[in-house]
Design a protein that fits this description.
It contains no helices and 9 strands. By secondary structure, the protein is mainly beta. It folds into 2 domains: 9-47, no CATH class; 55-92, no CATH class. The termini are far apart.
């Protein structure tokens, strides 16, 4: 607690197993799955709710092999793009081939 305000992120250990809590009922599973608003994550990232992406007027980073699979949202057309690292091109997720227009 800081200045009387409860923290929303807590990292700790329970029986020598690292645990990450992000809000009530959140945690890290035995095999490293992270749960947000779920205490029993069943995937690498298990979100019980919704996610928010920033809108990008330009590509948020250079698309290369290190960023292959990164996802971004365009601000002009609200379309999802993915970094196709083998080609160094951001493409629309709808077809995986058309270059994104930011």
């Amino acid at each position: 607690m800081t200045n009387g305000v409860a923290s929303s992120l807590m990292v700790g250990f329970d029986s020598d197993v690292a645990t990450l809590f992000v809000g009530p009922g959140s945690g890290v599973g035995t095999y490293g799955q992270v749960g947000i608003a779920t205490s029993a994550p069943k995937a690498t990232l298990d979100v019980n709710g919704y996610i928010r992406l920033a809108k990008n007027a330009v590509a948020p980073l250079a698309c290369d092999a290190a960023h292959d699979g990164a996802i971004a949202l365009t601000s002009s057309t609200y379309r999802l793009c993915v970094c196709k690292g083998g080609t160094t091109t951001w493409v629309y997720t709808s077809d995986g081939a058309t270059a994104c227009t930011w």
